[in-house]
Fold this protein.
Amino acid sequence: MFRRLSRWAVALPLAVALVGVAGCGSSEPGAPAAADPASGGGATTVTVFAAASLTGTFTELGKTFEAAHPGTSVRFNFGSSATLAQQITQGAPADVFAAASPATMKTVTDASLASAPTTFVRNKLQIAVPAGNPAKVDALSDLTDPKVKVALCAEQVPCGAAAVKALDAAGLKVTPVTLEQDVKATLTKVELGEVDAALVYTTDVIASGGKVNGIAFPEAEKAINDYPIATLSKAPAGDLAKQFVDLVLSQQGRDVLSKAGFEAP
Amino acid sequence: MTSTTPSPARGFADRPGRGAVTGRLPWALVVPGVLGLAFLVLPFAGLLIRAPWSTLFQRLAEPQVLEALRLSLVTATVATLVCLLLGVPLAWLLARVSFPGRRLVRALITVPLVLPPVVGGVALLLVLGRRGLVGQWLDATFGISLPFTTAGVVLAEAFVAMPFLVISVEGALRATDQRFEEAAATLGASRWTVFRRVTLPLIAPGIVAGAVLCWARALGEFGATITFAGNFPGSTRTMPLAVYLALETEPEAAIVLSLVLLAVSLVILAGLRDRWVTSP
C-alpha cells in the first residue's frame, strides 16, 4: 500500500537535491581562480566578506574596483557580521573582512587570521517607523509604551548590541515583540508594517528608499558602531585584497560611503 | 495521535512479500545504499564528536534551553493536529472527488515544499500580518494579531508541514481497495459513514506516517517561523531559532541545542515507527 507513497518519497527529495546542485553550480563562475591559494600574486578574484549593512555601498565599490583593474572580479558574501566571522574562523576562503562591530572583528583577529584592522566608517542608530508613523513615535522613550510594537536586533549581532547600549544609556526598558537575526530582517518587519518601530542603522533607513521613515535620537551618540576592515592573513588574492581595502579607505570610497549615510571615523 | 489507529488496519502492511526474493545482493543497490546512509548519518556523527561533553549537562539545565524545547514540542504537536484536521479531508477530496482543476490543486499543495521557507513566512505576513489581506480584517474585527505570537509559530509550522501529510494520506487513499467502500455504500451507509467506519481505519497507517513526517518537519521549522512569528524567548523562540542565534556567538551551545533536538525527535520517531508505522 505504500508503493505510491514511497515513489513520491524517493522522487521528491531527489528532484529537490538535483535542483539545488544545479543552482549552486551555476552561481560561482569565477570560483576556481580564487580557490587556489598558491596562485597568490596572479589571482584575479577578490572575495570580500562584508556586513549586511554594507551591501549597497560595497557592491558599488566592487564595480569601481573591477573597472580600475581589468580582468579582476570581486565576489561578495554579505551577511550578519557574527555569521561571517564564524565562517572565516571555520576556514572560508575570504580575502577581506569588513565587520559592523569591533567585537565580531575580534573573533577573527583572536584566531590570528587577520591583524591590525582599520576603522573605516561609523554608523549610528535611528528609530525606523513605517510610512505614516501609525503609532506616532517621535522619541526613544515612546518605545517603552506597551502598545507600541517594537522590533530589535538580537543582542548577539552588532545592531542589537548597539540598541541595548543606547537604551541603557537612556535608562529605558523596552520589551520588543521580536529579536531579529540581522538588521535587514528587522527593517523588513517595519517595511511590512508588522511593527510600529525598530532600531536600525541610519544607512538602512536611507537604503530603504523612503519605505520607512527614520527618526534620529540623541542617545544614539552613545552607541555608535565602528566598522573595522582588514585583509586576512591567508588571503588567497594577496596584494589584490590590500588594493581593495585601499579603495575603501580612499577619498573615492569615503564619498560612496558617506552618500549612503555612513559617518567618517 | 494514537487514537487514529484502530484495529482493522493492523497487519495490513504485514502482508507477505518481505524477504520472499532471495539470492545474492546486487552491488548496484548495496553500494549506493550504504553511501546514502553514510551521507545522512555522518553529519550527525560530526555533531556528536564536536559536542562539548564536559559542560553538556550544565548547558542543558539552562532555563532558556528547556523553554525553547518545550515551545518546540508544543507548537509542533499543535501544528500536526491542525494539519490532521485540515489535511486529511483535503487528501480525501483529492483522492475521491473528481473536480475540474484537480491536477492544478495537487500541484499547488506542493508549493510550500518548494518555496524557501523564508519566502513562505513573508507570504504568510502578506496575508495574515497586521497589514495583510486577511490579517487586517482579523485585527480590526476581533483584535487578533498573529505575527509574533505562539499561534503564529503554529501557523508557520503547519503551512510548511501540511504537504507532507496530504501527500502521504492521498497516497494511502489511492492505494486502498475501493471495493470495501463500495460494499459499505451498497449496504446503505452514507458517504460520511463510509469515510468514518471504512476509509479511515483502512488508511490509518498512512495517516500516522504522514503525521509523523509532518511533526518532524514542524519541529525543525526555521525560516517561516523566524519570518512570520519573529524570535522572542518564551513565546516564539523554538529550538531551531535558538540554535541559529547561538551559532552567531557560541557554536558549542548551538551543537548542544541541536543534539537535544535530535535526541528528542529520534526517541519519539523511533518509538512511533516501531509501534505504528509498520511499513518497511
